[in-house]
TrEMBL record:
A molecular function (GO) term: 3'-tRNA processing endoribonuclease activity
Gene3D superfamilies: Ribonuclease Z/Hydroxyacylglutathione hydrolase-like (3.60.15.10)
Metallo-beta-lactamase domain mapped to chain residues: 29-211
InterPro entries noted in UniProt: Metallo-B-lactamas, RibonucZ/Hydroxyglut_hydro
Name used for this protein in its record: Ribonuclease Z
Domain of life assignment: Bacteria
Amino acid sequence: MKLVCLGTGGYFPNDRRHTAGYLFPELGILFDAGSSAYRVIDCLQTDELDIFLSHAHLDHIVGLTFLLVPMHRKKIKTVRVHARAEDILAIKQHLLASQIFPVDIPFEYHEITGTVDLGKRGKVSTMPLRHPGGSLGYRIDWLDKSFAYITDTSWVNDYLEFVRGVDLLLHECYFPDGAEDLAELTGHSCTSQVTKLAKQAEVKHLGLIHIDPFRTDDDPIGIDAAQAIFPNTFVAEDNDELDF
């Protein structure tokens, strides 16, 4: 199973990282559609796309507008947007308002109310997360593989069982250790909080994502401290292709 990290940053794009997008190219499944969504068409191996949105903050949805041209040119025939009802409404009323984006995009919208069964492509389950305005965590399970995507949340152990034992956990890590108060205020997490969770949940690999865009250095979160707690930790970078 291959996952492409289209965008691994948060808040706004910089020269190193675009904002959120994680694509299973063979399955046609995308988690979030931030500024990195322009990269979808170069990787996608199907003509249908299911997009699962964590929430409707701009850094996670702005890239929906970038799919207009691939759809118009029939490179992508169908796009299904899965999200909470309030996020779908926000997208329709604001992001795609005629004053902001004057062309209709023929998305199919699906309100998430529980598990989404994609047949041979797996089952997608959700978990509410703590973040201003709310957010959803995702887990997808196949016969012998599993993956979880947790972004934009203040660290709590409510979702520990939700991610337990997954082959790969991508978890937001906007702040390094020492910024716990700011993380709590803004609805984000710090390095040791995330790595302790991964250890307790006995996940196999942990990728740290949604990196603070003001940090463009090679070690924005303190990787040595992270790996001291959970050795199988890495910082995801844009265009990484992860096999698991």
